[in-house]
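_Full entry_
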Amino acid sequence: MFTGLVEEKGVVTAVETLDDAVRLSVRGPLVTSDATHGASISVNGCCLTVTDLAAQDGDVFSADVMAESLDKTSLGDLAPGAEVNLERAMAAGGRMGGHVVQGHVDGTGALIDRTPSEHWEVLRFSLPADLARYLVPKGSITVQGVSLTVVEVTDPQDPAPWFSVSLIPTTLADTTLGTLAPGDRVNLEVDVLAKYVERLLAARLPKENPA
């Protein structure tokens, strides 16, 4: 489990294409400082398992990304030199500074536009129609592994749903959100609590009679 508070920006050092997967190698001095084989690290919001730590360069870790993850996330867009948001799994007893983030990406969206201001910047993102119902103003959303608060969100029935977030200079500087350009794909994870509530309510609601 993660909190959506990015610990550092890492850099992709290598992308190795396998038969049905991709092996990513990422440099991240902080997240690898106590990493072990099998540890979980969030890369742009995707929970990946450390499969190798470079013997001569201990600040680089490798992780295998299977086809399912490549299909449902933006990890397949990464190339050597790309910056990524990194976060270690939260330790028991740690502070929940963001919100409950599983590292299980629900889908991808894209940056529509960004509106700068003197002390913050508003970013608008598209999102898959089937995820729109889980977003509410002032609710939580994870974008590229970053825990953010929703400012505005379109009606769930909107054919082209979008939501906006407002970012302070620290978030823009310390995460990759500061360099996104319109059209760039991003990983999205909605608040898992909303999905549980929906499922629990569905079990209690009367089922419609077939016509």
